[in-house]
Amino acid sequence: MNEELAIQANDLTRKFGDFAAVDQISFEVSQGEIFGFLGANGAGKTTAIRMLIGLLAPTSGKASVAGFDVYTQAEAIKRKIGYMSQKFSLYTDLTVWENIRLYGGIYGLSEDNIKAKAEELLSSLQLESVRDKRIGSLPLGWKQKLAFSVAMLHEPDIVFLDEPTGGVDPITRRQFWEQIYQAAEEGTTVFVTTHYMDEAEYCDRVSIMVDGKIEALDTPAGLRQAYQADDIEDVFIELARGADRAE
Amino acid sequence: MRTIKFLLQKEFLQIFRNKGMLPIIFLMPMIQLVVLSFAATFELKEVDVHLVDFDRSATSRALVTKMQATGYFNIQSHSQDVDDGIRMMRSNDIQLALVIPQHFERDVTSGSPTSVQLNIDAVDGSTAGLIQGYGRSIIQDFSVEVQPQIKQIQQQRRRAGINIIPANWYNPNLDYIKYMVPGILVVLVSMIGMFLSGMNIVREREIGTIEQLNVTPIKRYQFIAGKLLPFWIIGLFELVVGLLIARLGFNIPFVGSVLLLLAIAGIYLLVVEGIGLFISTITSTQQQAMFIAWFLMVVFILMGGLFTPIESMPGWAQDLTLFNPVAHFIKIMRMVLLKGAGWAEVQHLVGILTLMVVIILPAAIFRYRKSTG
Ligand SMILES: Nc1ncnc2c1ncn2[C@@H]1O[C@H](COP(=O)(O)OP(=O)(O)O)[C@@H](O)[C@H]1O
Ligand SMILES: [Mg+2]
Question: B296 pLDDT exceeds 70?
Fold first, then answer.
């Protein structure tokens, strides 16, 4: 297994009954890369992520994350990764600080470390003012920011962001991408799904998934050139023309 | 250990913040204890009586008056035909047909054997038992009163020790509370253990918060300890409060060791929590989990000797009691609290409960998955 690779997938497949939600996808993500995982709703992005982070058993194929096998070393993978799920999954009846403290504690950070890390994250995301507010009362954009900071709390090698900018305003989206860049600069590998095609331009490389399969994978510039398109959106429309699952 | 500390902190914060659940957890069990204990008593309400008095003497009238005076019997009608009484019983108008034979007065005053017939509607077995008990003691009392002077002296010598029995019958409900309260305490503790911890896990699965926990390197036993411990503590706390209410409110004697009882309750809570946890691993919604938990709970309670003594159940049902943790703990509770049983008398029951913990808890932990297949 290649030590340089953060993620490696080989014919990774997940079926629900006869239906292949993820159909033999293969790709590699290098360390420190920002990898955009694009696809329409229902293409299979979330299912693929869930297999990579050990929440869902693959039906067939191979995959490794941070050098660990997804079948046999899921718990080792979990020590190396952060995850922000598409569906908000922090505790809405706890405050911002209580959520951070809980996850910091679970990841084994010391009390001082948790405090320092919380302050750092809250200030960089401009969330200090709501430190002691229950999350349930916050607007969606702020919740998403918080979910991101919890995913980054323990300084993971790889962070999986499942539609982090889904439903948030343009300004918050912009902030998000600044955070993602910063994380990448500090050496974190970023695996990010989105269906905003303009965001693809921020990624080092992007894959485009259609109906469970990866139909294209290259740098944004490479894709535009190959499809002779002005932007990724056009590439995507070209590829998605034959899709069955579009909603 | 540190991880579990953070999980406990989180659970308790959530429990005490949940304004909907707090009263359910803390207030309802107490109300239930008080209400159930009073409502479930076997106090005889006024019984409607059809009187068939073939003697129509001063003595027979005196007996009837005495029965009415107790307030438990109400003569609704009378005739000279026993069949009238049976008919009225069939149409639910009366519960008792009282038949006083001819020559009742003569026989009673002369000391000859005589009998009064109580025809009781026994559809409701326990009420029938009470009517019989109350009726018999009134009539016994009455026969003592009307014995001629000479006989009475003999009689009283013979009856001196026995006369206490009717006194008990007149007020059996106090004893019944003593019998009920320990059992109801068991039910309350069981509900906390079986419903809350399992339901809590299913809820986290339903709203999706469990995903975020499942991608952390948290260990299964840590997660489960974090879920079981809070309700274990709350269960014991409620038992203590319940025992206080039993002691101060109902005057239930604590003949045996309360510490022993609490220690056993600690084991018992692990059994019911294990069952709740197991249910959570085989269900995906709170509704499903609730339904299964309720089903089990009702079976456990009905077959656990809370209302009907286990000894009066059919043999196969008695054998099944072996697998019923509620039955064991009710038995232990009554033995220790009311009869003062110690470790020696209850150790075999505690052994069974411990065995249950050792089976169900690992099975539930084993079944719990951080990932879906
Ligand atoms: N647990 C499941 N059971 C059955 N079908 C599922 C399940 N999870 C996802 N799917 C299906 O798999 C497909 C891919 O879903 P998903 O991975 O969530 O797509 P995306 O994240 O790209 O929007 C969808 O058609 C979805 O309905
Ligand atoms: Mg998705």
Answer: yes
Question: Best residue in A65, A89, A95, A112 to probe B by mutation, most B CBs within 10 Å?
Answer: A89
Which structure tokens are listed for B361? 């808890």
Q: Give the CA angle between residues A37, A117, A7 to the nearest 5°.
A: 25
pLDDT number for residue B148: 58
In this predicted structure, the answer to whether residue A30 has a pLDDT above a threshold of 70 is yes
- pLDDT for residue B150 is more than 90: no
CATH number at residue A227: 3.40.50.300
Closest ligand 1 atom number to CA of residue A209: 22
Distance A247 CA to ligand 2 centre (A): 12
With bands split at pLDDT 50, 70 and 90, how would you rate the model's confidence at B134?
confident
A135 touches B at CB < 8 Å: no
Nearest-atom number in ligand 1 for the CA of A86 is 21
Chain A residues close to B207, C-beta within 8 Å: 89
Residue with tokens 């002077």: B149
pLDDT for res B110:
80
- Residue to mutate (ligand 1; options A47, A53, A191, A213; most atoms within 8 A of CB): A47
> Residue B7: its pLDDT value, please?
96
Alpha-carbon separation of residue B168 from A140, B41, B165 (angstroms):
69, 14, 5
The distance of Cα B368 from the centroid of its chain, to the nearest Å, equals 34
The binding-site residues of ligand 1, defined as CB within 6 angstroms of any ligand atom, are A 16, 21, 39, 41-47, 245
Closest ligand 1 atom, CA of A40? Answer: 22
Tell me how many domains chain A contains: 1
Asked if residues A35 and A9 have their Cβ atoms less than 8 Å apart, the reply is no
Half-sphere exposure of B192 (CA within 13 A, CB side): 34
Note whether B331 and B244 are within 8 A (CB): no
Contact flag A54-B370 (C-beta cutoff 8 Å): yes
Q: Which ranges in chain B belong to alpha helices (H)?
A: 2-17, 21-22, 28-39, 58-69, 82-90, 104-110, 125-146, 149-159, 164-170, 173-191, 197-207, 209-214, 220-244, 258-281, 286-302, 315-320, 325-339, 343-367
Architecture (CATH level 2) of domain B47-158: 3-Layer(aba) Sandwich (3.40)
Report yes or no: A86 at the B interface, CB cutoff 8 Å.
no
**Rounded distance between C-alpha atoms, residue B312 and residue A23, angstroms:** 63
Rounded average pLDDT over B215-233: 93
Whole-angstrom distance, CA of residue B33 vs CA of residue B40: 10
Which tokens in the block code for residue B293?
Answer: 């938990």
Q: How far apart are CA A114 and CA A107, in angstroms?
A: 10
Task: Indicate the average pLDDT of chain B.
Answer: 85
Ligand 1, atom 2: nearest CA belongs to which residue? A16
Q: Nearest chain B residue to A58 by CA: give it.
A: B373
CA angle B48, B51, B55 (to 5 degrees): 160
Q: At what angle do helices B286-302 and B325-339 cross, to 10 degrees?
A: 50
The CATH 3.40.1710.10 domain(s) of chain B lie at 47-158
- Domain membership of residue A105 as a residue range: 5-246
